[in-house]
């Protein structure tokens, strides 16, 4: 039976299939240079995420201070129970408690000496809070530059293929260099953005803890200035 649409029918095997790209294919098609750059960026990303979450939980724990802590310290100090105030600070594992504990251990000395001891202890606490945070800033700045290095390598590979093609450019070989250039750039920017956001978030949370420490220290010094 004659089918008027049969002549226009396209065989199934001749249908052009759309090429899809996956992250794995982009990395593997980028050549050895691109794979090395991507591996390095992956290590930097893992490092940045580890530092972020480790510092995030440490800073969050440091910011949790019992609202009645200073009231209890006030009651102990005014009642002359210095040992009880010290014990309370030792049992409260926060930077604020350690600062107040340092000040309590100096009670009986001039107020200036107490203030200096608290300030020195505060610098140590801030240093502990900011431990490894600067590494995030380094990653945020270095990752895009490493990605750009991959871009330069990819363009060198592409130009090299053009120079050796003898006037006949092989698109497949040329695309390897372009894959390296584009994928490393994108990967470097992603790692840099993640590290930059993580760094700034930790800085903000650290500042809040520092302000809390300063406020409690001032409150403690005001307590020592109160008339008995």
TrEMBL record:
Main location as per UniProt: membrane
Family assignment from sequence similarity: Belongs to the exbB/tolQ family.
Residue ranges of the TM segments: 32-53, 133-159, 179-199
Membrane topology type: Multi-pass membrane protein
Protein name, entry field: MotA/TolQ/ExbB proton channel family protein
A UniProt-annotated Pfam family: MotA_ExbB
Compartments (UniProt record): Cell membrane; Membrane
PANTHER family: PROTEIN TOLQ (PTHR30625), TOLQ-RELATED (PTHR30625:SF17)
Origin: domain of life: Bacteria
MotA/TolQ/ExbB proton channel domain residues: 94-214
Keyword terms: Cell membrane, Membrane, Protein transport, Transmembrane, Transmembrane helix, Transport
